[in-house]
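Inverse folding, one chain.
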């Protein structure tokens, strides 16, 4: 959102200012619904607080966006049974890398982690996860390429119990061009997991590439229809994209952003900070 800085330096809170700001938010992939809501709130809030300058309005907008993004807390860890986390999202969004980064985080806390190679579509996807599992010091459950991913999860959950695993992190496929099949596959995975371990998966993390444009909202809706998404991970925030798309997605799904990805290494996963994010979005 390059035009924002210029806009906030203009000074006056004219009709034109609000219109340009609304447009900039929409162009910044915040999404139409969220942008309209934010600007409406900003209009009434600036009126109420008798704010005159654009610089002050910016601070209010930062607060609004941060509030919008910190509506919900993540569900607590279940304890006892392994925590089961399912990664979903389109191809290339960063599911496999994020699964590995999460495994690394939990390993650093001294927890036993099992990664599940649930993207059975390509042999390379399984190999990629295997390499990450070794680096992160996590166990891996895989099957032959082409096998039914829900069978891999079935195996994995039984293995997790037998081995006293604390956290199970499941990778999945993301090929959207066969969208119906993918969604059916995800539903089946979810069903199988909850049958083997009632209450699981405890987290379904939708991985969103920060460079994803406004159609990220439609994607999020599709995934959420198949499996109930509990949180978002925004990846590639180390690039030039600011990830405004999560504001729009959050507004639709009403789930928290759990983590942000800031690089390709195991350490490059940070807890999400709504205030920092909002400030960077409007910088
Ligand atoms: N710069 C950067 N690259 C990332 C990040 N997360 C993932 N990637 C890269 O994005 C590409 C796709 O990631 P991958 O995990 O294979 O995506 P998947 O298809 O959803 O499993 C890989 O080259 C990753 O290294 C991130 O936070 N920052
Ligand atoms: Mg992958």
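Residues assigned per position:
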């Amino acid at each position: 959102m390059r035009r924002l800085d210029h806009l906030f330096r203009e000074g006056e809170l004219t009709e034109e200012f609000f219109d340009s700001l609304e447009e900039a938010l929409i162009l910044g992939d915040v999404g139409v619904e969220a942008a309209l809501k934010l600007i409406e709130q900003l209009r009434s809030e600036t009126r109420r607080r008798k704010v005159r300058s654009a610089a002050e309005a910016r601070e209010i907008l930062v607060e609004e966006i941060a509030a919008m993004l910190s509506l919900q807390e993540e569900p607590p860890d279940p304890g006892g049974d392994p925590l089961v986390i399912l990664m979903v999202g389109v191809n290339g969004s960063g599911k496999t890398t994020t699964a590995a980064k999460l495994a690394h985080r939990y390993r650093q806390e001294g927890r036993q982690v099992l990664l599940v190679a649930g993207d059975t579509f390509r042999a390379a996807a399984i190999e990629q996860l295997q390499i990450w599992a070794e680096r992160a010091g996590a166990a891996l459950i895989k099957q032959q390429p082409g096998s039914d991913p829900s069978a891999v999860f079935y195996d994995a959950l039984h293995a997790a119990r037998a081995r006293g695993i604390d956290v199970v992190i499941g990778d999945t496929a993301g090929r959207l061009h066969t969208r119906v099949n993918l969604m059916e596959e995800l539903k089946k995975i979810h069903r199988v997991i909850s049958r083997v371990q009632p209450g699981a998966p405890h987290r379904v993390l939708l991985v969103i590439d920060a460079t994803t444009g406004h159609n990220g909202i439609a994607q999020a809706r599709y995934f959420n229809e198949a499996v109930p998404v509990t949180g978002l991970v925004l990846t590639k925030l180390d690039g030039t994209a600011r990830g405004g798309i999560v504001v729009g997605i959050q507004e639709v799904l009403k789930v928290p952003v759990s983590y942000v990805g800031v690089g390709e290494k195991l350490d490059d996963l940070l807890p999400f900070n709504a205030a920092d994010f909002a400030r960077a979005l409007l910088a």
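The CA atoms of residues 108 and 214 lie 36 Å apart. The domain at 83-272 is CATH 3.40.50.300 (Rossmann fold).
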